[in-house]
Amino acid sequence: MKPFVLALAMLIATPLYAVQPDEVLADPAMEARARDISEGLRCLVCRNENIDESNATLARDLRLLVRERLLAGDSDTQAVDYIVDRYGEYVLLKPTATGANKLLWIAGPAMLLAALGIGFAFVRRRESAPETTALSDEERARLSDILDD
């Protein structure tokens, strides 16, 4: 009986959100918009957690700010732009691939290609290196004399 109850509990388990009841908007459509926006915003304290899932005070402030901007009549894009202007692009969980971020998006693959090119050149150069020959009898005798001294 216990395994069945545990399995049932795991099946009906849903993700927990940190949104407090006093934060929820009365209009369900506006609340849905706020939740959609919040899913794309990073908690600046928790790093890789969106502000809906974070219990940090700053995340609560950001959730309230999103709802405040929506109530003020901002579109979803305007609300996100307002928060990005205020906190920087780091607040976005999925940063844009524009401006200075292009360098970051391109750097990883570019460095991989450069490393592959350097490795390929190194291997090619080693393959084309002249083969060494064994010492002649005269060279062995001279080496023996040098080492005996």
TrEMBL record:
Keyword 4Fe-4S: no
Task of the protein: Possible subunit of a heme lyase.
Lineage, top ranks: Bacteria, Pseudomonadati, Pseudomonadota, Alphaproteobacteria, Rhodobacterales
Protein name: Cytochrome c-type biogenesis protein
Keywords: Heme, Iron, Membrane, Metal-binding, Signal, Transmembrane, Transmembrane helix
Transmembrane segments: 103-123
Domain named CcmH/CycL/Ccl2/NrfF N-terminal: residues: 7-147
Family: Belongs to the CcmH/CycL/Ccl2/NrfF family.
One Pfam family linked to the record: CcmH
Cleaved signal peptide residues: 1-18
Cited InterPro entries: C-type_cytochrome_biogenesis, CcmH/CycL/Ccl2/NrfF_N, CcmH/CycL/NrfF/Ccl2_sf
Keyword Ribonucleoprotein attributed: no
Species in which this protein is naturally found: Celeribacter arenosi
Domain of life: Bacteria
